[in-house]
Each structure stands twice: as C-alpha cells, then as structure tokens.
Amino acid sequence: MSDDPNAEPGSPETDAWASLGETWRAGGSEPLAAVDSAEIARRARRFAGKIRLRNAGEWAACGVLIAVGAVRAVQEAAWPSKLSDLGLIAVALWVGGTIAARGRNLPAPSPAATTAEVLAHERAQLERQRVLLLGVRRWYLGPSLAWVVLTVIVRVLETSGLARRYALIGGAGTLLVTGIVFVVVDRLNARAARDLARKLSQLG
C-alpha cells in the first residue's frame, strides 16, 4: 500500500520521509514553507491511486464471488449446499462493504490548502490504511475462514460411508492449505502496517 514498502533505511525515499518528519515536528511557517508542497501532493496522488487500484481489484473479486455464489445457490437442490453458497455471498458482501466504509481514500485537500493541511491529510490517509490492515483478521480472514469451515462441514455431511472418509481427508487438507495461506496473508498485511507506522512516525 505504501509507495515502496521495501524501502530500506538510508534510501532516498526513506531519507525524504525523515526530512519531512523533521520539518513537521519543527513547526513554524518558515520550515513548512521550505517543504516542496508539489512533491507532497504528487506523492499523495500516487498513494491514493494505489488505494483506488487495490479497492477496484477487491471489489471486482467480491463481485465475481457474489455472482458465483448466487448461481450455485439457484442450481443447488440441497439446502446445506445452498447455505454454503449463501455464506460465500455474505462474506463477499462483508469484505466489499468494509473496504467501501473503511478503506476508501479520504477527500483530497483543496488546491489552495496550506502545506500543513496537505501533510495532515497525508498522515490521515496513512493512518486510515494502517488501521484497515491491522484489522484484517476481523473483517477478512475470520469471515473467510468461517465460510471455508462451513463448506467443509457441508461436504462431509452430504456424504456417507467411504465417500465421507475421503471427504474428511479432503476437508482436512483444505483447512490446512487455507490456514497456511491465511497466515501468509496476515503476515504480509502486518508488514505493510508496520511500514505505514514507520512513515507516520517519521512525519511526527
């Protein structure tokens, strides 16, 4: 989500953020006037563009899941399977709605905004996305895992005899792979949140 999450200390971008933080903490009109407002605005637009692109991708994925769940729910005759499909729709709506409510860009400052106002907007943007990333377990991973567990249970209940044994083995494998993927996703989001926290700290 950041301009360069992998930027190392001492890199040009990291140094620029640190310099910005020193200027912000120093206060006063003269230090703020020395800040390149155009560069701040350019970086803010770049960050906002990445957020828009991410959100568009997430909403597109949610739309596909909702469509798939709706089609399968209509085609399925058994209610347990319908319940799984409806659960998929619910999760997609929840994730997409959370991003719409908490992950969209904040309104950009007016062209006449002062440097301090532009910096304040940039800080608010970073903090908003950091909070979203920190809550990924609650609004994304948790609901998604609940749907996977529900789907496994439904598949097991719909079988019997030897087929149920295979369904149990397949379900266990599905839960294992899902758990590994979710741990990776969780760690990546935590890393991105730390990167945003670092930039916030440098801003003061």
Structural features, described:
The protein has one domain (12-203). It has helices at residues 12-26, 29-33, 37-75, 79-102, 115-134, 136-157, 161-203. 17% of the residues are buried. 82% of the residues lie in helices and 0% in strands. The longest helix has 43 residues, at 161-203. The protein has 204 residues and is mainly alpha-helical. The radius of gyration is 23 Å and the shape is elongated.
Blueprint (SSEs and pairs):
Blueprint: H1 12-26, H2 29-33, H3 37-75, H4 79-102, H5 115-134, H6 136-157, H7 161-203
Helix pairs in contact: 1-7, 3-4, 3-5, 4-6, 5-7, 6-7
Q: What's this model, at a glance?
A:
With 204 residues, the protein is mostly helical. The protein has helices spanning 12-26, 29-33, 37-75, 79-102, 115-134, 136-157, 161-203.
Question: Could you give a short account of the major beta sheet?
Answer: none
Distance between the termini: 20 Å
Structural class: mainly alpha
Domains (count): 1
Quickly count the helices: 7
Low-confidence stretches: 1-9, 11-34
Shape: elongated
Mean pLDDT: 84
Strand content: under 5%
Helical residue percent?
A: over 70%
Rg is 23 Å
Number of strands: 0
What is the H/E string?
Answer: HHHHHHH
